[in-house]
Amino acid sequence: MRMPKPLRNPSFVIGAAITLFIVGCAVLAPHVAPYGVEQMDMRNRFAGPSLEHLLGTDNFGRDLWSRMVFGARISLMIALISVGGAALIGTVVGLVSGYFGGWVDLVLGRITDIFLGFPAIILALAIVAVLGPGIVNVSLALIVVFWTEYARVVRGATLVLREQNYVQAARALGAGPLRIIFREILPNALGPIIVLASLGLGTAIIAESALSFLGFGLPPPAPTWGWTLSYGTRFMRDEPWLAIVSGAAIMITVLGFNLLGDGLRDLLDPRQLSRGRGERRKA
Amino acid sequence: MMTTPATMLADKKPVLAVEDLEIRIRGEHGSFSVVADMSLAVAAGETLCIVGESGCGKSMTALALLRLLPEAAEIAGGRVEINGRDVLKLGAHEVEDLRGEEIAMIFQEPLTALNPVMTIGLQIAEAVRQHRKVSASAAMAQAVETLKLVQMPDPERRARQYPHELSGGMRQRAMIALALACDPKIIVADEPTTALDVTIQAQILGLIADLQKRLGSAQILITHDLGVVAEVADRVIVMYAGRKVEEASVYDLFDHPIHPYTKGLMGAIPRGRASERLADIPGTVPPMWDLPKGCAFAPRCPGASARCLEERPLFEEKRPGHFAACWEHDDV
C-alpha cells in the first residue's frame, strides 16, 4: 500500500513535525513550562541541562526551557501577524497590479520598488525606532519590509492567470473585475502564496530575532530568542550554553518552516517536483 | 426547415444583427483590419454557421459580439445590435449584464475554459448568481438542473466534481451547461467540437442541435469543419481573409457553391474512397496587413482574371437568397 502523497515527501513530514512541535509548545506554554519566565534562582546560575532544568539556566538562574517556550509565543505571534499582514497587502496589490495593468501597474510597481530599495533591516529598525517596541509595532515593521515579495509573486501569477481561457469564459458569462480577481484568479494563485508564506514565517522569525538581538524587539525581561542570544554572546567564552540554546531555538524553528515550505511547494506544484528528480509528469 | 438569409429577414425579427463590423489590430505592422464589412443576422431558433480557415477572422467576429476582443484589437466601425440595443454603445456594467444573460459563448477547449479549482456545480451556480438574485442553494439546484438539461450522466455527483475528474465529452457538456445557465437568447459556439474525439463530436453536435430546438435560442456556430456545417446549419457564411465571400442557406451552399474558395473547401472534404486524392487549394492565405488590392483570394484562384487582381468584388446577390463576392461568377 502506498502512503498518501504528503507523507512520502520527507521535507514536508520533517518540516510539519518540527512546526507542530514548536507551535504546540507555544500554545501550551503555561503547561509545558515548569518554571515562570522571570523566576530567578541566583544560586543556580549557568546550570547545565539536568532533569530539573531541561536546557539549563541563564545568568539569572532562570529556566531556559521555560524561557524558550514562552519566547516561541512571541516569535510565532509576530511571525504570524507580520506574514499574514504582508501576504494580505502584497496579494491585493499584486492582483490589482497584474489584472489591470497599464498605469495602475506602473504606479503600484514603482511604489513596490521604493520599498524594495531600502535595506530591509534598516527599514525595520527605523520603523521600530519611530513607533517604539511592542508585538504590534515589530509586526508592522516586518509587514512593511515583507509585503513587496508577495506583491511581486502574485503580480507575476496574475499576469499568467488573467490570460487563461477560464477567465475569458467567466468574463463571457458576465463576471466583473472583482469577481474575476477573487473567484477566478486568486484561488488559482493560492499555491505560490501559501508556499511563500510558510517560507516567510522562517524569514520573519529571523528578522524578529535580529531586531531583538539589536535591542529593537520586545524589551527585557520579555524572553525573546533574539535578546537571549544577544546577551548570551556576552558570556560566550565561559558559558556558551545560553547562546547555543537560543540560537538553536531560532535555527530549528526556521529550518522547520523552510522544510515545510519546500515540501508544500513540491506538493502544490507537480512541475516543480519533477525538476532534477527525473520524474517528469505529463502537462 | 429553410430560413432566409440576412438581407431577406423581413418575416423574422433578428435577435442579433451585425452591420458593417470592422475590427482592427494594432501590431508591429501598424494598424490593419482583420475583419471588414461583416454583416450578419440571426433569428430565434436559427443556426448560422461561420466557416473559414484559421485566422480568417471568424473567432474575432464572435468575440466582438460579446465585446471580448483582446487588448490589441478594437472595433473600428459598424454596429452590433442585440434585441435592438446597440452593444457597442453600452457601458462596462451594461455589457457585463448582457453577457451570459442575453448572449453566451461556448468555448473551444473545455478543459482550459473551466476553472480548475472550482467544482462544476459551483461554477455554474456562480454564473447563475451573477445575473439572478438567488440563494447559494437555489443556484446550486439550478446548476444541477442545467447539468440534467445537457444530459450529464449522474448530474448531482458531477456537480460536486472538479473539471479534471471529468472526461472530455463531459467537460464540454459542463461548458455548455455553463453557457446555458442563465437561459441566454443567443449562443455563440466557437469550434465547440474541435477538441473532442470524433464519436464525442457527434454526441455534442446532437446535443447542441437538440437544445436549440428545445430552448429556441439563436445560435452562431463557428467552425472550420464543413461536415459540422452540413449537420447543424440553417445558413452559412464563408469567410476568407476577414471578409464574407459567400452566404447562403445550407442547401444552396452545398448544392451550388458559387465562390471558388467555397468550392475549394468542398473539394477538400474526404469522401471515404480509398483511391481518392484530396483536392487542396494552392498557395496560402495572404497576411492580413498586406492584402492584395483586388480580391484577397485572387492569387490562389484558378479562375482569377485581370479584374480580380485590380478590383475588390462586391458582395452581391447572385441567385435569390444566395450571396457571394466574385467577379467571375456568371449567374446560373
Automatic annotation (TrEMBL), chain A:
One of its GO terms (cellular component) is plasma membrane. Residues 72-261 form the ABC transmembrane type-1 domain. Keywords: Cell membrane, Membrane, Peptide transport, Protein transport, Transmembrane, Transmembrane helix, Transport. Pfam families: BPD_transp_1, OppC_N. GO terms for biological process: peptide transport; protein transport; transmembrane transport. The keyword Manganese does not apply. It is found in: Cell membrane. It comes from the Bacteria. PROSITE patterns: ABC_TM1 (PS50928), PROKAR_LIPOPROTEIN (PS51257). InterPro entries: BP-dependent_transpt_permease, MetI-like, MetI-like_sf, OppC_N. The chain crosses the membrane at residues 12-33, 76-100, 120-147, 189-216, 241-261. It is a multi-pass membrane protein. Belongs to the binding-protein-dependent transport system permease family. This is Binding-protein-dependent transport systems inner membrane component.
